[in-house]
Amino acid sequence: MHKAHMTAAPRRLLPSISLLQAFEAVCRTGSTAAAARELALTQGAVSRLVQGLEGQLGVQLFQRDRRRLVPTEAAQVYARDVRKALDLIARSSLGVRSNPGGGVLSLAILPTFGTRWLAPRLPAFLTAHPGITINLATRLRPFDFAREGFDAAIHFGRDDWQGAGAMKLFDERLIATCSPDFLRRNPVSGPGDLASLPLLQLETRPDAWAQWFSQHGIEGATPARGMMFDQFATMTQAAIAGVGLALLPAFLAAGEIAEGRLVRACGTAATGVGSYWLVWPETGAGHPPLQAFRAWLGTITAPLRGD
Q: Which residue ranges does the record assign to the HTH lysR-type domain (predicted)?
């Protein structure tokens, strides 16, 4: 008991949720009136809650400019942390509500990988583990697990996530694709012919085309530049529309090719610039839903790794 008492935060540093919600809403919306509408409170109630938080912390969080509250620099930093904490509490509460027996896995996924590769396979996992609920959210880039509160993430790149355990899923294999009409208008006899055509680009893989040409024995090629995209999904739609050629992961291209929306332009599948990984915070490695998901994911991706 003595140890727990010594490590507990002072009560004055643990404001109530109502105080924090009002403070965060005022900082985000820019006014007590807007915050009041969002929280279904009166403007006066919001002002009193903000004053209550300042009194509890013993710090002035806002400059009073006539009828406006202008957050101090320290308040803006505090608001960002409070926003993350409230989001974590809300997601955890949702998990408890949806599965009161426990077994919730909060997973961050890449948008296209999640919808096109993972989602069709999830029913098999959930059937095998009926007590586990998976909450999904999309993230394009690595983040701080301590701040975001996820149990795990699937990301693309290398095994370089700080403070995290990792399991390789499979290497990316890229296929040069285009619409059937684009290929009819731009016939090619070999990989080298692609260099003069519009090549669609992905922000996260700026050297993908150069690598593809190199792996096909074409050194020093100066590829024509095409449109830039931040996600495979939009780049795929542009290729289907005939805007240019797209280098797509084999798992994504296969469905579009089978349904006739895309064709393989030429060449073989080339090794991409990274791999897909499941990563998790080292402190949460023993979370039972994560252990079950990790084991299942390792089994279904073993053939793709050549295990």
A: 15-72
* CA dihedral of residues 233, 235, 241, 247 (deg, nearest 10): -110
Please tell me the total count of domains within the chain.
3
CB burial string 187-198: b at 16+ within 10 A, e below: ebeebeebeebb
Q: What CA–CA distance (Å, rounded) separates 307 from 298?
A: 10
Strand partners, 109: 138
Residue 174 tokens read as 């890229």
Question: pLDDT tier at 106 (50, 70, 90 boundaries)?
Answer: very high
The residue whose two tokens read 């998901």 is 293
Helix, strand, or coil (residue 56): helix
The parent domain of residue 106 ranges over 102-160+276-305
Residue 215, both tokens: 């792996």
> What torsion do the CA atoms of 224, 226, 228, 229 make, to the nearest 10 degrees?
-120
Comparing CA positions, the residue from 146, 172, 176, 175 lying closest to residue 161 is 146
Helices 73-98 and 17-29: crossing angle, nearest 10°?
A: 120
Query: What CATH number is given to the structural domain containing 122?
Result: 3.40.190.10
Contact 137, 108 (CB under 8 A): yes
Tens-place pLDDT, residues 113-131: 999 999 999 999 999 988 8
- Whether 40 and 59 map to the same domain: the answer is yes
pLDDT at 179 over 80: yes
> Measured between alpha carbons, how far is 26 from 66 in angstroms, rounded to an integer?
16
Per the CB < 8 A criterion, the answer to whether 205 and 229 are in contact is: no
Alpha-carbon gap, residue 79 to 59, rounded angstroms: 14
